[in-house]
Design goal:
Transcription Regulator spoIIAA, 33% helix, globular, binds iron/sulfur cluster, alpha/beta, binds 5'-deoxyadenosine, 13 helices, six-stranded parallel beta sheet, 4 domains, single chain, Rossmann fold, disordered N terminus
């Protein structure tokens, strides 16, 4: 799939982008398309017959990284078919696998023309020129001193026709959790100037976007310069953004617990547009494991944080990431994680088996947990998390929820939207306006979605 819901542009050259991994990659794919528009490339929905294919990749776990090579195998055939027919196809690998593996990709897949990381895609026009020369190829995994954002086009056709959009405000990570590749693939923490973000948000809203999710690997550590010269934290940025006419909903992800400051916590109680939903990864419920992970918080810090958030916004729903089977994790450590989950009651969560990543400190630890045990723990953890998610969904039945309608459903006359808690809500409605927020009475709950009915309100 290309970036979500992109409209096809009738440009001369066909560009196919396949996006893996996180929401920031979705944002980046949109920006890559923007950079390539002046060169005559327009997005298409399928790789067949494309003039350029970009795989925007994820390196976070082994499985994600492996997918790239199997996809490249398929693309190799497409490229050959096109060349046999007298055409040309440029194949690019971008994103975090490109950053981490660089030259290795060119060795394993010599038919790849361009390999570049997340910080250099603004240089795509030069890269395309270089790769188009006979025998030319590009390997660009720099971390340029000047941020790419300064060189990206102001205009963008990404998100046209969409009601919800991502907006990167912060990128990179200085935390160095022992399991994680992100500090190596995305580089050091950087916050975009507040004015640039506000301008981008206004443009999105002008295009019809009603909900913006602010993105960053450590988004809650945002500290960007404002026009006044002041430095704004995320709480201030959110407060200012909420004044944009037509912007109805704000979210932010992903947050690091130790970076939740007073201003941001307070914003949850003060800013109506800020949705009562927060993804706040804790990773483990064991202090011993958190320490081994080099996390800068303990379990009690997390508990206190949840209490403070709930004091500001009683109905806030929490989500988290969990890793099971981190090296040295005992049954007792795992039991502590289950205990924390029972206490907090998450409304949804992501959970993963620990995957040793090359170059990260945890990959070199001796006491790796067996895959069988990881599988068992993951199943147990997911049973509990799924039960909590279902319980939350069931508790939504009988409530009236504001649903941002954004697309037709699979069945005729059906629409799909999102509740404030990111639940997918299906409704049969005769007509709606794109971007409309409709109060719906929730009539049924399922594991991953809700059914709603129009109310007379
Ligand atoms: N193994 C398993 N899960 C990981 N994550 C990050 N690195 C790893 C790894 N090596 C998970 C964390 C993070 C989420 C994006 O991915 O839970 O919050
Ligand atoms: Fe994957 Fe992390 Fe890179 Fe996003 S930043 S694509 S999650 S490795």
């Amino acid at each position: 799939m290309g970036p979500r819901g992109r409209t096809q542009t009738p440009l001369a050259k066909k560009l196919y982008i396949k996006t893996y991994g996180c929401q920031m990659n979705v944002y980046d794919s949109g920006r890559m398309a923007d950079v390539l528009t002046p060169l005559g490339y327009g997005l298409v929905e399928a790789p067949e017959g494309a003039d350029m294919i970009i795989l925007n990749t994820c390196h976070i776990r082994e499985k994600a990284a492996e997918k790239v090579y199997s996809e490249l195998g398929r693309i190799r055939h497409l490229k050959k078919q096109r060349e046999d027919a007298g055409g040309k196809m440029l194949v690019a690998v971008s994103g975090c696998v490109a950053q981490a593996e660089g030259e290795e990709i060119l060795k394993r897949a010599p038919y790849v023309d361009m390999v570049f990381g997340p910080q250099t895609y603004h240089r795509l026009p030069e890269m395309v020129a270089e790769a188009s020369r006979a025998g030319g190829y590009v390997l660009d995994t720099d971390f340029p001193a000047e941020p790419k954002f300064d060189h990206l086009p102001v205009e963008s056709s990404a998100n046209v026709g969409e009601t919800a959009a991502f907006l990167t405000v912060q990128e990179g990570c200085d935390k160095f959790c022992a399991f994680c590749v992100v500090p190596y693939t995305r580089g050091a923490e950087y916050s975009r100037p507040a004015d640039d973000i506000l301008a981008e948000a206004r443009r999105l809203v002008g295009q019809g976007v009603r909900e913006i999710t602010l993105l960053g690997q450590n988004v809650n550590n945002y500290h960007g310069e404002a026009a006044s010269g002041e430095v704004w934290g995320l709480g201030r940025l959110i407060t200012e953004m909420a004044d944009i006419d037509g912007l109805r909903r704000l979210r932010y992800t992903t947050s690091y617990p130790a970076d939740m400051n007073d201003e941001l916590i307070a914003a949850h109680g003060e800013v109506d547009a800020l949705m009562p939903f927060l993804h706040l990864p804790v990773q483990s419920g064991s202090d011993r494991i958190l320490k081994a992970m080099n996390r800068r918080h303990q379990v009690d810090d997390y508990r206190r944080l949840v209490d403070r958030l709930r004091k500001c916004r009683a109905d806030i729903g929490l989500s988290s990431d969990f890793i099971v089977g981190f090296p040295g994790e005992t049954d007792a450590d795992f039991a502590d994680t289950l205990k924390l989950i029972e206490e907090v009651e998450f409304i949804q969560a992501y959970s993963f088996k620990y995957s040793p990543r090359p170059g990260t400190p945890a990959a070199a630890l001796d006491d790796q947990v067996s895959d069988a045990l990881k599988t068992e723990r993951l199943a147990q953890l997911q049973d509990l998390l799924n039960a909590q998610q279902l319980a939350f969904n069931q508790a939504s039945v009988g409530r009236v929820m504001d649903v941002l309608l954004d697309r037709p459903g699979r069945e005729p006359g059906q629409l799909v939207g999102r509740s404030p808690y990111m639940q997918a809500v299906h409704v049969s409605a005769a007509s709606y306006e794109r971007g409309e927020i409709m109060p719906l009475l929730i009539t049924a709950a399922h594991a991953n979605s809700l059914t709603g009915e129009q109310t007379s309100q």
